[in-house]
Every structure is written in structure tokens, then in C-alpha cells.
Amino acid sequence: MNALVGSRIGGKSGRSGELLAQKLAAEGITNQQVLQAIARSPRHIFVPEILAHKAYDNTALPIGQGQTISQPYIVAKMSELLLANGTPESILEIGTGSGYQTSILAQLTAKVFSVERIKSLQFQAKRKLQAMDLHNVSMKHGDGWKGWQSKAPFQAIIVTAAPTEVPPALLEQLADGGRLVIPVGEQQQVLKIITRRGDDYDEQQVEAVRFVPLVPGALL
Ligand code: SAH
Fold first, then answer.
1. Which residues, judged by CB distance below 6 Å to any ligand atom, belong to the binding site of ligand 1?
2. Whose CA is nearest to atom 16 of ligand 1?
3. What residue numbers bound the domain in which 102 lies?
4. What gap in Å lies between CA 146 and CA 2, rounded to an integer?
5. How far apart are the CA of 125 and the centre of ligand 1, in A?
6. Measured between alpha carbons, how far is 169 from 148 in angstroms, rounded to an integer?
7. Is residue 11 in some structural domain?
8. 13 is catalytic
9. Span 108-141, pLDDT tens digits
10. Which domain CATH number covers 106?
11. Is the pTM of this model over 0.70?
């Protein structure tokens, strides 16, 4: 049966999503809007059908093309960090991947802009967001190192793949007072929050993380 059939979204996933949200609250996630979005999101439609039974475990899973759907804890943590200074009007996401993080963000803000370099993943993510009736996401097939110039500036930017250094375009496209939440590094990666204050950028390091690389250049 097609994993996108509507009844599975409202049905079984409801309870599993709630249990996952409870687990994340126990691990220290406190933002109630974020926990509600996790509770409502059918993570099983964002993973390959063969892994659907693991969809509500707190682990990253493969989604094809050598990419992964992020661990729910990190999705919740990054969302919480992004909202820590209040709700931004719009969010730029780099690395759509499965679209699961996108679906959480779409429930937390009025408008999400999401960039992905692998066309097939972007296409699948789009269908899943439509199945969830989330229509406030604009997607672009492009290189996230360059951000999304025509929609800038952004109050909030989240990057879900790790560059070796913070892409200068993302710093430029951050609004004054805006926040960028981004993993940086190669073997050793650290999650950073960068806040813009005029032409200055404050940097905080949050915790060690592990993401797939933010690949520069050529699109697939
Ligand atoms: N938040 C996603 C994470 C997917 S993994 C999820 O939970 O499903 C990171 C994604 O970043 C992959 O889909 C990968 O293709 C994408 N990516 C890597 N380099 C990129 C780049 N330069 N521009 C845009 N997307 C990129």
C-alpha cells in the first residue's frame, strides 16, 4: 500500500508521534510548540517503507542517495534553538533531505524556504509535505552554500548538512538580529548558533554532532 495514504497519517502515527515527543521532552527539549509539531508529524512517511517500523526511534536512518533523515532529538534541538528568540516570520533551510525537518519548521513559522541539491530527494519531500497538507514551503533545487539570495534577508537559517566552514552567503543573507543554526566541521563537527548584530556575528558552540557533508557545487 502507498505509504502516503491519508489514513495512516492521522491514524497510527498520532500515538507514535506523541510517544516520541515524550521521549524528547525527557531528553531535555522544552519548547512546547516544537514538541507538539513532533507529536503531530508522521515520521514514518519520510523514511523508506522498509524502515517504517523504526521511524519513531530516536535515531537517524538512511533515505537513499547516501543521505540520512536526522535523529529526532537533533531535529527538535535545532528547531528549539532557532526559535529561542521568538518566532521568525520565515525560515531558510539548507538540506531538505527527506523533508521531515521541513515539516516541523512548517508548523512553527508562516513560511519556509528549503534548498536541496539532489533533485529526487526534493521531489519526494515535496509529495510528503503535500500529503501532510503543508502548503507554506517553497523549495529550490540548488547549492545551499549560496543560500537563497532573492528571498533574503532571513530571521532564521538552519543548515542540516555540515560545511567545512560557515558559508559566507548565509552570513550575508541573515537579517540583523537573526540566527543561523549550523553544524560545522569534517570528522569533528560542532553545532553552532551564529547571531547577527549589524556587521558583527556572535558565535556560540552548542554540542558535538555528526551530519553528512554540505557538498559544494554540482547538483544531482
Ligand atoms: N533535515 C534532513 C537532513 C537530510 S541530510 C532530514 O532530516 O531529512 C542533508 C541533506 O543536505 C541531504 O539531502 C543532502 O543532499 C543535502 N545537501 C548536501 N549538500 C548540499 C548543498 N550544497 N546544497 C543543498 N543541499 C545539500
1. 67-70, 94-95, 97-98, 100-101, 115-118, 121, 143-145, 160-161, 212, 214-216
2. 95
3. 60-209
4. 36
5. 12
6. 9
7. no
8. no
9. 999 999 999 999 999 999 999 999 999 999 999 9
10. 3.40.50.150
11. yes
